[in-house]
Design brief:
CATH topology of the largest domain: Rossmann fold
CATH superfamily of the largest domain: NAD(P)-binding Rossmann-like Domain
CATH architecture of the largest domain: 3-Layer(aba) Sandwich
Number of helices: 13
Helix content: 40-55%
Radius of gyration: 21 Å
Order of helices and strands: EHEHHEEHEHEEHEHHHHHHH
Bound molecules: 1,4-dihydronicotinamide adenine dinucleotide
Distance between the termini: 24 Å
Number of domains: 3
Strand content: 5-15%
CATH class of the largest domain: Alpha Beta
Strand order of the largest sheet: 3-2-1-4-5-6-7-8
Structural class: alpha/beta
Number of strands: 8
């Protein structure tokens, strides 16, 4: 496995993070991007990610140099002819992904694994036009990949078991934490849980019962801490299933179910308040708040050591 050669296609927010993790674990890794401006920035982006890891005492300067030595940048898909795993991280446009997989199938070795970092497309829709569907699999990383270890591995109907095993081995070697789903469901697992919580959070704020600050404070001081140690099922076992059944029977009918909660998100987006990128969302994002966030991220990296 140590001699796997990795290709990452699309060197944006996710692609460069994934590629840097692969290079850091010792794999020769080539990132292919079609945007020349982005290509020019890629080494700097990798260095920024590696610097965060150095600051958190997770790697040494020598490991950083080695990683940068393993990382290659290209605008040419043909540079992936000798790669045995490709991870696609181009924008979430189905037709563009179809075109790319067709090309990768022609260029890459017949035994190469083709994985997609898609957030939303089901595996069978992505591999629809592929000749060898058995070598296709979803590897859904979380942002930023060097901080959040989870990768959801989602096989399609035709995915070969050996392909899943090879991918899981690679993900473990790059110090990610892979989980394999039995079947594809929209949003996989993580996003379903994330958006179930967001729906209720929006509902609470929409009713006026609490502000976004209060909801965030509750989450950070309670569930946030618990969920770092145990999942919802472990939590239910610990709390007692009889108690959970009784509370859930009364509470669940009261929880938000519809999409009217999205009006709150629509109000902000209509005003151009998109969050950190525009300086305002539910909060005002000035430089001080952004620095606080960076410090929290450093702390999370150190805690995860
Ligand atoms: P991005 O827009 O930051 O990066 C996409 C990159 O792909 C750009 O640099 C672009 O120049 C390049 N590109 C476009 N077409 C290409 C092609 N045909 N060949 C090579 N390079 C090409 O996008 P981001 O956020 O990194 O997302 C990539 C994928 O990862 C999407 O499928 C997205 O749904 C998924 N994803 C995104 C997450 C996020 O938080 N942003 C989290 C998990 C998955």
């Amino acid at each position: 496995m140590a001699n796997e050669v990795i290709g990452v296609v699309g060197g944006g927010l996710m692609g460069i993070g994934i590629a840097t993790k692969c290079a850091l674990a010792g794999f020769r890794t080539t990132v292919v991007d079609t945007n020349r401006d982005r290509i020019a920035e890629l080494s700097k982006s990798a260095s920024t990610i590696l610097s965060e890891l150095i600051d958190a005492d997770l790697i040494t300067c020598a490991q950083c140099d080695q990683a940068l030595g393993n990382l290659h940048v290209s605008d040419e898909l043909f540079d992936l002819t000798d790669a045995n795993i490709a991870i696609e991280a181009i924008p979430e446009i189905l037709s563009a992904k179809h075109q790319l997989f067709e090309k990768l199938e022609r260029i890459m070795r017949p035994d190469a694994v083709i994985a997609s970092n898609t957030s939303s497309f089901p595996p069978d829709a992505l591999s629809e036009h592929m000749v060898q569907k058995e070598r296709f699999v979803i590897a859904h990383f979380w942002n930023p990949p060097h901080v959040i270890p989870l990768v959801e591995v989602v096989p399609g109907t035709d995915t070969n078991k050996s392909v899943i095993d090879r991918l899981v081995r690679l993900l473990t070697e790059i110090r990610s934490e892979p989980v394999v789903l039995n079947a594809a469901i929209p949003g996989f697992i993580g996003n379903r849980l994330q958006f179930a919580v967001l729906r209720e959070a929006l509902h609470i704020v929409s009713t006026g019962a609490a502000t976004p600050e209060t909801v965030d404070a509750v989450m950070k001081a309670s569930l946030g801490r618990r969920y770092g140690m145990m999942g919802p099922f472990e939590g239910a076992d610990l709390g007692g299933l009889g108690t959970f059944l009784s509370v859930a029977s009364h509470l669940m009918p009261q929880l938000a179910k519809g999409e009217e909660v999205l009006d709150l998100l629509r109000e902000h987006t209509k005003k151009g308040e998109l969050g950190v990128s525009t300086g305002r969302g539910f909060y005002k994002w000035d430089q001080a708040r952004i620095e606080d966030l960076k410090a929290l991220r450093r702390r999370q990296l150190v805690t995860a050591k």
